[in-house]
Amino acid sequence: MKPAPFAYHRPRTREEVDGLLAEFGGEAKILAGGQSLIPILNMRLAAPAHVIDINGLADELVEPALLGGTVTIGPLVRHAAAEGSQLTATALPLLAQALAYVAHPAIRSRGTVVGSIAHADPAAELPAAFAALEGEARVRSARGSRSIAAPDLFVSHLETSLEEDEWIEEVRLPVQGVRGSAVEEFARRHGDYALCGVVALAEPRAGSRIVLALAYIGMGPAPVRLELPELTASDVAGDALEDAVRTLAHEQLEPEDDIHASARYRRWLAERLGVRAARRAAGALEKH
Amino acid sequence: MFGERVERREDLRLLTGGGRYTDDFEHDAAQAAFVRSEHAHARVLDVDVTGALEVDGVLGVYTHEDLTGGFAAPLPLLVPHEGIVRPRTQYALAAEEVCYAGETIVMVVATDRYVAEDAAGRIRVSYEPLEAIVDLARAADAGATVAHAGAPDNIAGRVSEEKGDVDGALANAPHVFEWRFEIERSASTPMEGRAVVARYDERDGMLMVYDSTQAPTGIRGGLAALFGVDLERVQVLAPDVGGGFGVKVMQFYPEEVLIPWAARRLGTPVKWTEDRREHFIGSNHERKQIHHVRVGCDDDGRILAFETRFVHDSGAYCPYGLIVPVITSAQLPGPYKLENYRYEFRAVYTNTVSTSPYRGAGRPQGAFVMERTLDRLARELALDPVDVRRRNLIQPDEFPYEVGVTFQDGGPTVYDSGDYPRGLELLLDAVGYAGFAAERERAAAEGRRLGLGLGCYVEGTGIGPYEGAAINVMGDGTVTVAIGLSTQGQAHETVFAQIAADELGVDVERVQVSTGDTRRIGYGVGTFASRSAGVAGNAVKRAARSVRHQAQEFAARLLEAAVDDIELADGAARVKGSPQSAIPLGRLALVANPLRYAYGAEATEAAVFARKAYSSGEAPLHEDATPGLNAVEYYSPRSGVFGFGMHAAIVEIDPDTCNLLVRRYVIVHDCGRVINPLVVDGQVQGGFAQGLGGAFFERIVYDDTGQIQNASFMDFLIPYATEVPAPELHHTETPSPSNELGVKGVGEAGAIAVPAVIANAVADALERPIDSMPLSPLQLFDMLHPDGNGR
Q: Do A265 and B781 touch (CB under 8 A)?
């Protein structure tokens, strides 16, 4: 389990990263936290000719920052820093809730928020949280910059809509505001990839009605934000929510079989965990 | 110190990164990587190594054609047995046929592992794929696809034995039931994989091998024979070993002969450190067995006859003989009286990794079969499962108790001591059995499914043939104890020090224990079968006693007192009742070695002593005396000693996730006299954690073509600390009459009963039989929601 040979680059500025990607593009991989990339290299599942280590970038923020009504997360913000940040706690409780499920402290101390979203693993928590919060990725290359909204970013398993010379320089998430949130997941072991997980956001509407959005973890090739029909508080406590989640779980999700869970079991979990998460998110709303 | 909760003396070193493992030796050594079979079964048509030879830094690329003599022959069969009908072991490098995915075909040695893997990746092996047989039940059928080309069937061995008259008793039994039980394949998976480092010095012909093994003395003897050199020319050190659990007692794995071979051939130190994937596909597994049971009983649940016919998955080869199914067969009866008992097993080849003992070694299978049988029988007859157990237990006045079948060492299985009814009643009290039915009902009213399960086992431990201990008193009073077996975290540095400290009257801190170094003591057997305390412990006791006698005799001469009046205490020898006469043990050791030209006051004293001896017409050393204070003694037990335990679990099934929640787990445990309760607690807790792994998390999953589907720690699920609740521990002490210390082994104990107990608890919670282990949330979901309506 040693990687195949590669050329190692350690740029100092974002522009240098652009230049390296312009030159090596599809033969290069960006190394940030390395918590997914290094095992992939060591198992020789990938053998990029170039590894661009961005840990040497100068003057990068190491914590999330508030710009206008948006939380901006730079490429070297570690999971642990985002999880422990006061800004996250007040402006994006959902992100903190999701980060608590990301693997173990050792991994969270190295892994980065942007890296996890760029890796686009549908079994990971952060892409789902990013989708639920309707975030956008700031993407750049030597050709210029653009923003990609969550629904357009994730194409499939480990695949984004980025061009070969592009990289995500920042992730932007609108503050949560009055919306309540919750994360539920079931993993065989604490910190493992979940057999099924779900993040829920509850938004109050006029007339004590609630709009619930769910984004599932590990239930298809890419995380998708799904909205339930408007519900009343008593709907949420009763069968109406159960029925709505069940319908969604059966019509919108594409779980697969593997050695740990069948698609049928995953759909069951999606229904049960979806109901749990929705009720908790709505419950958080009432506290406001 | 015996019996005290002495803190583990090795922990500071091991927990602060001070351990020294095999990979920590010979940093500049060349490193090996292997090309392993991609197919579960294939003929190797051609191996093209030219691409590898072109890689800079490659020192050698070797296939079977490069091997000669013993190195080219199949690897040894470690434990012969008359029941083996077709012995097969693999070649160090495959000759023509590969029989499991992972079998070694080519060895590459290069300047480092990176280069070795680059080169290995450029080797092209041409295969003619052959049909693979993976499923154990099908492999055992007549006419099945064969795991080895040209073989008539897949039978590696078969053994049967009978006590009493099973057919007669079954014919007359009021009730006869038949059931099938299955337990899945699993593996030891220690944190440190295997590793071998070898250095050959051609000037003196010395081969030095560092090996992460549980049996360095066996490796040494085998290598000496293989290389055709004197035993004295081979030394093996098993340094700190990061876990073994059985997988490292196999001798020999291919790498263990190839790395020393390459070191001699290349004239440079060579190292191989296994990676995790290699461990899953190249180091032994265990556990898979399918049992058919026929049991006859009376109306009260008393067993009148018990028969089990079973198949054992040997994997592709049988390097460890039939030891696992033999242990299952002998230990399946556990603490229960089976007057009529018959077993019949077949060990069956499949195109999978070979099997050999993994902590528990056949006993978890036996306990699962026996304990599920008792619960099913109780349910069929509407009896309390506890009453059924009470009626079948061996009673305290029946020891020594003859089980009536052959033990793993070839002798009769005879339990030395035990008090099973007392253990069971203690367990029932502790778990609150009497009040559980009401608790279960209350929970059911709330829509919660609770279940309680019990399980008992007897564990044969402390088997021979022997162990030794070399004890030496240093000039500063330090006592060194060297034992031949190696250490994988069992607190040997603490418990053996306690035994020596007691005998020699020194503080335990003054005793230094060395393990697994053939340079220190050349004879020993190994750390397995829960045998270290029972066998090496008694050897340490004997060696320490010899040293005590030497000290007493020598001090008696110096102090001009009678030998019987000398006692050892506080690190000194002294005349009883006169502490001012004390001679520190270290000084005594120096004076007892009357050599010349030495530094220090004691040297002068020794010389004076020698002159004085001559002047009174005596030799400085008496007949039979050794210079200094040191002794080597051995202990060879006549038979094993039998610990036992009773476990109970209260479980709940989460209705939303179908997850298993272990609400309580209670253990009553007896391993004879306890040397160190802290260490015993740790062993039982660790065993429980591994047992829970075997009950609900760990299984090796093969697909039909013989590829492992979960060859990583992401998918082979070892429970984390977060998944293992703290068990409640209770101990009883029934000393063994068979050895001086009265001790029995404890290393495997905690793991044995857990799958049986969890199965019984889940069966109770779900009110349906659980006859296959381990379980998983997926299986529980399928049981709770069998309807295929998508919900």
A: yes
